[in-house]
Amino acid sequence: MTETTTTASPLEKTISLKLSVEKINAEVEKRLQKVARTARMPGFRPGKVPMKMVIQTYGPQVHSEVLNDEIGRTFNEEVQKQDLRVAGTPRIEAAEGAAEEALEFNAIFEVFPEVKFGDFAALEVEKTTVEVSDAEVDKTLDILRKQRATFAAVDRAAQDEDKVTLDFVGKIDGVAFAGGTADDFSFVVGKGQMLPEFEAAAKGMKTGETKTFPLSFPEDYHGKDVAGKTAEFDITIKSVEGAQLPELNEEFAKAMGIADGSIDKLREDVRVNLSREVNNRTKAQTKEAVMNALLKVAEFDVPKALIQSETAELAQRAREDLRARGMKDVENIQLPEDIFAAQAERRVRLGLIVSDLVKNNSLQAKPEQVRAYIEEQAQSYENPAEVMQWYFQDRARLADVEAVILEDNVVEYTLAKTKVVEKKLSFDELMGNK
Q1: d(Cα 298, Cα 186) in Å, to the nearest integer?
Q2: What pLDDT tens digit does each residue of the chain (434 aa) get?
Q3: In 3D, which of 162, 136, 157 has the Cα closest to residue 244?
Q4: Is the CB of residue 353 less than 8 Å from the CB of residue 294?
Q5: CA angle, residues 5, 351, 345, in degrees to nearest 5
Q6: How far, in Å, are 50, 51, 53, 308, 325 from residue 37 at the CA level?
Q7: In this protein, which residues make up the domain named PPIase FKBP-type (predicted)?
Q8: Which strands form 102-111's sheet, in the order they lie side by side?
Q9: Domains, the chain, ranges and CATH?
Q10: How far apart, in whole angstroms, are the C-alpha atoms of residue 412 and residue 287?
């Protein structure tokens, strides 16, 4: 006999499970008989251990296994009978006052909520748009040229984009410190390769000039011996070299992978790559706007068990990130759960919303969508056919693609039902250059 009750939480339920003692004992005896056929103990041949000793040695473990199996089986039968969608793992507690012929337990668990949506038409969603113009293509070509710049000596003061070669000695309280001295050290001014005070000191100096200046190391500087301290540096400029950019010509185009050296083809190639990057970023911003809108239009309680599970997952990812950064003993680091709680709840809530929309509106990824997506991704590689094969030969990779398409379908579904406001950004704004 089973019984279902609802507790104080709208999503929390309790099922009373009554298990037959006779049935459990019969199954325990059956399993112990099986164990006895192969049991090994000192002084006895395999399979000849007295049953009493088998029961003493293996009885508690077998009884526990049978009890857990019977609880799980009875619980699963009941939730299927009542058509309950269980969220998380149930908590099993022994009930009081059970009869001699039966064991009684309470299974306490949460169920998935019913997602209720408000009026989509009342929502306003910003859709980000960005135009890739000739100016962006020109700017990108300039960047590519700068990346392939050569340097030649110039007779003037160092300025941004120049490469300076210098000797330097750093001292703290008049004493040189480890790592603070170098000869013939080179860096490009204005690239952020050195601390701002060091770059500022070198900028404006000519070959042969010397300078002494103070430099304050940040509190979080990677060199712990000097972090937070102020040093005095002596620098001597050995040379100043100006950048010499390659000409935008046939030779440059070939170096960039254009076989016939066509500048027009190079510009088109750059435009395609920029458009792909712009498309990815605008889609991401629009998706974020859609998800924020869905959070506003959907109302439901979130299972605590799912939030706890997601919180643990986020904490583990944080530890893995710290390990990747070289931190030791990350498993012993106590990460307060509350720092992940808000993010975990948002992720769970969005996951339930998306799942409901997909299920009730047939927004699953279709085979033709999967193929089109993979073909598009493959075009940015030298051998598209190999990339497509790489995707299609692995079910896990296809599942990742399907997940992306599924979310794209939800975004398109939402945009079709809401008021869409175009949010125009410049290329630099989208790329974070402003």
Answers
A1: 58
A2: 455 555 557 899 999 999 999 999 999 999 999 999 999 899 888 889 999 999 999 999 999 999 999 999 999 999 999 999 999 999 999 887 656 788 999 999 999 999 999 999 999 999 999 999 999 999 999 999 999 999 999 999 999 999 999 999 999 999 999 989 999 999 999 999 999 999 999 999 999 999 999 999 999 898 888 999 999 999 999 999 999 999 999 999 999 999 999 999 999 999 999 999 999 999 999 999 999 999 999 999 999 999 999 999 998 888 888 888 887 777 777 778 789 999 999 999 999 999 999 999 999 999 999 999 999 889 888 899 999 999 999 999 999 999 999 999 999 999 999 999 999 999 999 988 65
A3: 162
A4: yes
A5: 75
A6: 10, 10, 13, 44, 53
A7: 161-246
A8: 2-6, 12-20, 102-111, 86-94
A9: 2-111 (3.30.70.1050), 149-244 (3.10.50.40), 275-431 (1.10.3120.10)
A10: 9
The pTM (predicted TM-score) of the whole model is 0.75
- Assigned token pair, 223: 């060199």
Cα 275 to the center of its chain, rounded Å: 24
In the chain, the N- to C-terminal Cα span, in Å, equals: 68
Residue 102's beta-bridge partner residues? 20
Give the separation between CA 344 and CA 51, rounded to whole angstroms: 52
| Residue type for position 201 | A
